[in-house]
Predict the structure.
Amino acid sequence: MSANDPGFWATLIAWLYAHKNEWGYAGLAGVMALIRASYFGRDSWPRRLMDAAMCSMFAFFVKPTLLILASIFNWQVGDDAAWVAAILIGFTGIDYFSFRIRKQLDKRFGGESADQ
């Protein structure tokens, strides 16, 4: 499909419009990550932007993830839970999630010491 084809642009715009809430979650998490990084002021701007981009990518899929978890554990999750989760993702940052996942993987698969 060529970028000169008007059908391409119509399809792209339709897809963006269909996922406007997901883009909202991603934008909110990215802005929150930038605010957090600026507040603490420890990281350089490229690292802040990279963290915000990773938080945005993670938050883009927060609603389907919450729906899957709700169906597995038989929870009742409201529509606004995804907005709150996006804010929490941006506030905690990717470093927190990365540390937790690595700790669980090391504990489960016997990698390096989980206390590091």
